[in-house]
Amino acid sequence: METANSSNILSSTFYLTGIPGYEEFHHWISIPFCLLYLVGIMGNCTILHIVRTDPRLHEPMYYFLAMLSLTDMGMSLPTMISLFRVLWSISREIQFNTCVVQMFFIHTFSFTESSVLLAMALDRYVAICHPLRYATILTPTLITKIGIAALLRSALPVIPLLARLAFFPFCHSHTLSHSYCLHQDMIRLACADTKFNVIYGMVLITLLWGMDSLGIFVSYVFILHSVLKISSQEGRFKALNTCASHICAVLILYVPMIGLSIVHRFAKHSSPLIHIFMAHIYLLVPPVLNPVIYSVKTKQIHQGIRNLLSPLKLSSSVM
């Protein structure tokens, strides 16, 4: 009985991995990670605060931007505690239930971010192709429904995938490849038939990310078609410039995502550093760069940040 209990405890415990071969430098490596998380959290919280407090930004475009900031934090924050526990040599252990919850948040918000980017592409399409009907089409009620639908569409399909993990025996190594849990990493350790999870996961990625990317592409085909009808070159540039931030956000999400998928599928025997590097880029780059891009490229957000900082400058000058 004691042996069975100890076996169950062992099977529910997994071990996270930091940066292989650089364990003695983990404390130093944690510094840039800490700065990146700090920049991401501050940047996204700043955008959320500006959109909430500035009545001029209570428009569809900025509501979708607030959704993007929430999904950015939802995708990156679940990894923060486990990452620093490993890098600061606190503990490499993570329990199975905690691992599943972490996977749920990472994968759900990853799919949600793609859905939000699709909604933002539709927002740009309506704004450029149907400007007079913009406010009547994208009402606050519709935007709320889109946000809820994006979250449910991303969360519900993930549940069966993760629920099946509870029935898998993990009788081999319990060492994961990253400092956080990913589904494709955990099923690699299962000593059971994981064909359903592999096929279901690939179908899920193809359907959700595939449909989103196709929708974004089609939206920009219509946007480009409408922009080319504008007679003045200045008008064309102004219309396309409103899409620049969104195009950057799409590339920031999809390029690392495609790179990580390629590495997991076709470079399984490559250096572990490549897998770890790509995974961290995928989870950390969007939350860090999206607020920076929208702060620089969007005049209203840039002005909102200046207004937010001006009282601080005034108080410092008085002191």
From TrEMBL:
* Keywords associated with the record: Cell membrane, G-protein coupled receptor, Membrane, Olfaction, Receptor, Sensory transduction, Transducer, Transmembrane, Transmembrane helix
By sequence similarity, the record places it as follows: Belongs to the G-protein coupled receptor 1 family.
Q: Where is this protein localized, as stated in its record?
A: Cell membrane; Membrane
Record organism? Bos indicus (Zebu)
Q: Which domain of life is it from?
A: Eukaryota
Task: Read off the Gene3D superfamilies from this record.
Answer: Rhodopsin 7-helix transmembrane proteins (1.20.1070.10)
Q: Which positions fall inside the G-protein coupled receptors family 1 profile domain? A: 43-294
Topology relative to the membrane, per the entry? Multi-pass membrane protein
Q: Which residues cross the membrane?
A: 28-51, 63-88, 100-122, 198-223, 244-267, 273-296
Query: InterPro entries, per this entry?
Result: GPCR_Rhodpsn, GPCR_Rhodpsn_7TM, Olfact_rcpt, OR51/52/56-like
Primary subcellular site in the record, as a coarse category: membrane
UniProt xrefs under PROSITE patterns? G_PROTEIN_RECEP_F1_1, G_PROTEIN_RECEP_F1_2
Function as written in the Swiss-Prot or TrEMBL entry = Putative odorant or sperm cell receptor.
The name under which this protein is listed is Olfactory receptor
